[in-house]
Amino acid sequence: MTTDNAHEKREAPGGSSAGSAAPGDLLDPTENDGEPEFAGRHDTDRVVFGVTAAITCGLVLWGAVGPGSLKDFADSALRALIHDFGWIFVLAATGFVLFAGYVATSRYGRIRLGQDDEEPEFRTSSWIAMMFSAGMGIGLMFYGIHEPLQHYVQPPPGSVPGQTDQALQIAMANSLFHWALHPWAIYAVVGLAIAYSSFRRGRKQLISAVFVPLIGQRRAEGPLGRLIDVLALFATLFGSAASLGLGTVQIREGMIQAGWIRGVTTGALVVIIAVLTACFVASAVSGIARGVQFLANTNMVLAALLVVFVFAAGPTVLMLDLIPTSLGVYARDFADMAAQSGATGGPAMNRWLSEWTIFLWAWWISWAPFVGMFIARISRGRTIRQFIGGVLVVPGGVSVVWFAVFGGAAIGSQRAGLDPFGSGREEAQTFAVLSHLPLSQITVVLIMLLVAIFFVSGADAGSVVMGTLSQRGSIEPDRWVVVFWGAATGAVAAIMLVIGGEHALEGIRHLTNLGALPFALVMILLCVALLKDLRADPVTLRGEKGAEVLEAAVITGAAEHDGEFHLEVSPAEAEAGSETAGPGSGAEVVGGADGEVAGEFGESAGESGGESAGEIGGGLGGEADGKTGGKIEREAGPAEPQSP
User: Fold this and answer.
1) What whole-number distance in Å separates Cα of residue 8 and Cα of residue 115?
2) Spatial CA neighbour of 173 closest among 369, 5, 332, 29
3) What is the DSSP letter of 638?
4) Exposure of 479 in the CB half-sphere (CA atoms within 13 A)
5) C-beta atoms surrounding 606 within 10 Å
6) Among candidates 530, 415, 407, which has minimal Cα distance to 147?
7) Taking phi first (over 0 means left), then psi (-120 to 50 degrees means alpha), and beta for anything else, what does residue 307 get?
8) Which residues contact 473 (CB under 8 A, 6 or more apart)?
9) Spatial separation of the C-alpha atoms in residues 462 and 236, rounded to whole Å
10) Are 96 and 185 in contact (CB under 8 A)?
11) For the CA atoms of 429, 394, 310, 275, what is the dihedral angle to 10 degrees?
């Protein structure tokens, strides 16, 4: 039996996609000290950039001229989306959790995101900090107190009475359901697909490039591929704008609490949006190493200090009790929460889903292109199992602690009769809870600083990714493109807040849900394309071939030597008329002696071949016959990457 060496390194000239290679081929996308060859390209895709920019400008103009009509359109479109397509978000989000778990625990988990001998590019601590800040930092700042408190006082329709022990369990279970595994599984699916396609297959860092094994090279670079990138770019824009909107309303509330401004004014929102937009654009054009990594590490320290302070100053015992309680009810109610839909509960349930589960799933999906591409960029050299384990387990664990601390503080305050729930708008609840703790004036400023930096460290990644999508996968897009998408993000965020009026969150939810639905369908097909790629990976093919060779050798030994044999590995000898060139590796079945079976089996350790890589021993008994069995040969392949 022979198989071609599927791991021969080749170049990807001019940044061309590797999709035309044979299914098992890996291309070497590196040169210039390991940077992708196409990293320096700055060729703007006029279709992807032009179409998305035109739609964005039209939307902003519509919102500026007729905010009322845009709000009416968004309201009616959202009702149709929840009623007709809400089930897609419900099924897809949980499906991504199951898909990520399967890939991590399967034979594909050993595959490295890069060449077989590559090491991770970033330290694990920095990797986790950047990933977490880009993924959901601003959301945790906004919802860490608001969501547990909301579900405790007003549980989901048809569940349990509010402000009871059962309501506490429901509140913590739903908070973890929305913030633990599901969002990070969504990010992991997109990030894994991009990292594998780019760093192992040598393709461009584009969503469309991931679809090469499914639709082919020509279609992936044609109109269909451009449509995929437009949908990804559009979703990214709305996800970033939603985050900017949330950060803006919370910073505005903090400024009111600190006495810096009076009342709720549109002018204050516009100024905050302009300042935040300028900050994240400046960070984005400075590059990942100088911008995002510094901000992420700084903010993780500040966030840790805030958690420790609230934990020490708040109801500490309740917070500690909530950790096992939250994990238990989350595991117990997981299936029921995943099955929540508009089939039961009527209009009240549909409204609840649109404000919570479906909105959050849509928000995560709209963030997936840029968070996925960002964590792919910083995850080169890790195995698939390391990647998914890190992306799911570490941030998920942090979310458990975060909601136990801040949710515990909020519920403790509500139980004590301080009524932070009745303090006003959603963004005011965080400051209402902290106002009853020591050093409240300092924590108010710290909250605003954390929200601002969390947004900047996430949104600058988003603007760079939008530039990458606009310039055919360039890892370092032109600054003018980054600046354009940064300004567009600020403009869309302003429109979201304007159409929401006094209820700013409504405008954010409406437009985010509408922007995410098309990309949810793209993500479902992306999973199919990724599986097809993984099945053709050399590690997978070598594993299958090794199992075949071993099984054939054992069958031959058992048949020809009555159970008395051992397996040896030796260089394959070229037979007369054969085209074998160079050293190889053969598995030779040799008859046993003195009733013993040695049972050795090995693989070559690369093209230098001949060294044993493994050993299988056992005694099958029987009489010795001293005969030598047949020889099974195969051409040597490259060394298999080590398991994490």
Assistant:
1) 11
2) 332
3) P
4) 7
5) 16
6) 407
7) alpha
8) 15, 38, 41, 198, 203, 204, 205, 206, 209
9) 7
10) yes
11) -50
Q: Cβ distance 514 to 59 under 8 Å?
A: no
Residue that the structure tokens 């509500």 belong to: 414
Contact 633, 2 (CB under 8 A): yes
Strand order in the sheet with 628-634: 565-570, 585-591, 628-634
Q: How far from chain centre, in Å, is Cα 12?
A: 26
Residues with Cβ within 8 Å of residue 531, at least 6 apart in sequence = 103
Q: Would you state the structure tokens that stand for residue 96, as one six-digit string?
A: 């991504």
CA dist., res. 367 & res. 363, Å (int): 6
Distance CA 383, CA 107 (A): 12
In contact, 232 and 468? CB cutoff 8 Å: no
Is the pTM value of this prediction over 0.90?
no
* DSSP-derived 3-state class of residue 593: strand
Partners of 634 in the beta sheet? 585
DSSP assignment letter at 643: P
Residue 429 CA, chain-centre distance (Å), reads 29
Instruction: Round to whole Å and give the CA distance between 8 and 308.
Output: 52
φ, ψ (nearest 5 deg) of residue 633: -120, 150
CA distance 104 to 127: 19
Place of tokens 């594909």: 108
Please give the biggest Cα pair distance in the chain: 98
Q: Which residue has tokens 């022979």?
A: 2
Backbone angles phi, psi at 45, to 5 degrees: -80, 105
- Contact between 162 and 152 under an 8 Å Cβ cutoff? The reply is yes
- Give the angle 498-513-456 at the CA atoms, nearest 5°: 65
Q: Across the 644 residues of the chain, what is the mean pLDDT of every consecutive 10-residue run? A: 34 34 42 42 85 94 88 83 87 96 95 91 80 69 94 94 96 96 95 95 93 95 95 90 86 88 75 85 65 68 92 96 96 94 84 90 89 87 94 89 96 95 87 93 91 77 86 87 91 85 69 84 96 94 83 81 74 51 48 43 37 34 36 37 37
| E strands in 182-323 | none
Q: Are 581 and 600 in contact (CB under 8 A)?
A: no
Q: Please, are residues 7 and 538 in contact by the beta-carbon 8 Å criterion?
A: yes
pLDDT at 327: 96
Give the residue carrying structure tokens 């006495």: 259
Q: Is the dihedral of CA 469, 472, 474, 479 positive or negative?
A: negative
**Dihedral sign from CA coordinates of 580, 582, 584, 590:** positive
Question: What beta strand segments (E) does 1-129 contain?
Answer: 30-31, 35-36
Which residues have C-beta within 8 Å of that of residue 639, sequence separation ≥ 6? Answer: 116, 605, 606
pLDDT at 408: 97
φ, ψ of residue 68 in degrees (nearest 5): -65, -45
Element of type H or E holding 590:
strand 585-591
Contacts of residue 160, defined as CB under 8 A and 6 or more positions apart, other chains included, come to 166, 167, 170
Structure tokens at 273: 């949006």
Q: CA-CA distances (angstroms) from residue 222 to 26, 196, 469, 632?
A: 23, 21, 14, 46
The contacts of residue 286 (CB under 8 Å, 6+ apart) are none
| Helix H or strand E encompassing 591 | strand 585-591
3-state secondary structure (DSSP) of residue 29? coil
3-state secondary structure 48-81: HHHHHHHHHHHHHHHHHHCHHHHHHHHHHHHHHH
